[in-house]
Design brief:
Blueprint lengths: L1 E5 L4 H12 L3 E6 L7 H4 L4 E5 L5 H8 L5 E4 L11 H15 L4 E6 L12 H13 L1 H16 L4 E7 L1 E3 L6 E4 L9 E3 H14 L8 E4 L1
C-alpha cells in the first residue's frame, strides 16, 4: 500500500510511519520541516517527502499526484491554536486528491464533532464545554475539519475521533461511539497509530466516524 501522510512529524505520526515501513508499505510524507522527521524514516528507500504548508498550492498539487492509495492525516491543532489552517487546507487538498484518483481519506478528529448515533453524556458535555471555554480556536478548528471531511462528495472518507492521549504502550482498541458504555476516555498514541494503519488496510469504517479508545 502507498500512503500519503500528513502529520508524520508528530508523536502519533512517527509511530505510524515506523509501523507502516515495518509492514512494507510505501510512504509519501507532507511536512513543514523535513528535519523533524527521524533520520531512519527520512532515509528509508520507501519514503518520499514533500516539504511545504497547506497554503502552498503548488506543493499540494505535487503531493496529490504522488500515486498514493490513501491519504492519512494524523495532524491536529495544538492547545490554544488560532485560525483554521487544517480546515482550510483540507478544503484545498481533498479535491486535488480526488482529481488524482486518491479517493480515500482517513483523518483525525475529536469527540467535539458529534455523530448522529452518539448519545450525549455528562462526560462528553463537560469535555466539549472545557474545549469551547479554554481553547475555542482548537474547538472551532476540529468542528471545521469534521464538517469539511464528512460533507465532501466523491471520496471514501473516514474520521477517527480520539479523546485523551497517553504515551503508554500499544494496547487493544475499542472502536465505538460516544455514550456506548465502551467509550473510555484514554488511548495511547501507539494504539492510535496501529488502529489507523489497520483501518487504512481493512477499510471497515468508510463513511463513518468512530470514537477510538483503549479497552
Amino acid at each position: 500500500m502507498h500512503i500519503l501522510v500528513l502529520g508524520a512529524s508528530g508523536a502519533i505520526g512517527r509511530q505510524f510511519c515506523e509501523m507502516a515501513l515495518q509492514e512494507g508499505h510505501r510512504l509519501t510524507l507532507f511536512v513543514r520541516h523535513t528535519s523533524k522527521i527521524p533520520e531512519h524514516i527520512r532515509i528509508n528507500e520507501a519514503t518520499r517527502i514533500f516539504e511545504g504548508t497547506l497554503e502552498a498550492d503548488s506543493i499540494l498539487k505535487e503531493a496529490a499526484n504522488c500515486g498514493a492509495d490513501i491519504f492519512v492525516s494524523l495532524a491536529g491543532p495544538s492547545y490554544g491554536t488560532q485560525g483554521t489552517p487544517l480546515t482550510d487546507g483540507y478544503q484545498r487538498l481533498i479535491p486535488k486528491l480526488a482529481s488524482h484518483r486518491i479517493n480515500r481519506v482517513l483523518i483525525l478528529c475529536t469527540p467535539s464533532f458529534r455523530d448522529k448515533v452518539d448519545v450525549e453524556t455528562w462526560k462528553w458535555r463537560t469535555g466539549e464545554w472545557f474545549m469551547r471555554i479554554f481553547s475555542p480556536g482548537q474547538y472551532q478548528e476540529m468542528l471545521g475539519v469534521g464538517n469539511v471531511v464528512a460533507s465532501t462528495e466523491g471520496i471514501q472518507w473516514g474520521l477517527f475521533r480520539v479523546g485523551g492521549l497517553t504515551n503508554g504502550p500499544e494496547a487493544p482498541v475499542e472502536a465505538t461511539y460516544l455514550g456506548s458504555g465502551a467509550d473510555k476516555t484514554w488511548i495511547s498514541r501507539a494504539s492510535v497509530a496501529r488502529w489507523v494503519l489497520d483501518e487504512a488496510r481493512e477499510a471497515q469504517w468508510i463513511g463513518k466516524m468512530p470514537y477510538i479508545c483503549n479497552k
